[in-house]
Amino acid sequence: MGETIYVNRKDLTSREVLQELADGNRVIIEVTVLGKSLNMALRRQSGTYYCDTPMKLLTYETEEEMRRCLERYRLAEPAPAEDSADGVPAVED
């Protein structure tokens, strides 16, 4: 396994977190819940994404599912839309 990266909530975009996981790194995100500091451990192993919370281990089979988790729980900033081939930003519906 690669490095362990420690960040605070929303320090990285979901795309940046996914890239760290693809590179074999583990990402620990510190969050504050009801005034208490907790760590969420994210990793990818054998093609499965893991989000280990203090209460439950969440697993995801695809990068898209993991991205949605990161954004739904506001662990990471949403990734900006990819630019299209002509240099004009893509428009999301």
TrEMBL record:
<dbReference type="Pfam" id="PF26008">
    <property type="entry name" value="DUF8001"/>
</dbReference>
<protein>
    <recommendedName>
        <fullName>DUF8001 domain-containing protein</fullName>
    </recommendedName>
</protein>
<feature type="domain" description="DUF8001">
    <location>
        <begin position="1"/>
        <end position="77"/>
    </location>
</feature>
<dbReference type="InterPro" id="IPR058314">
    <property type="entry name" value="DUF8001"/>
</dbReference>
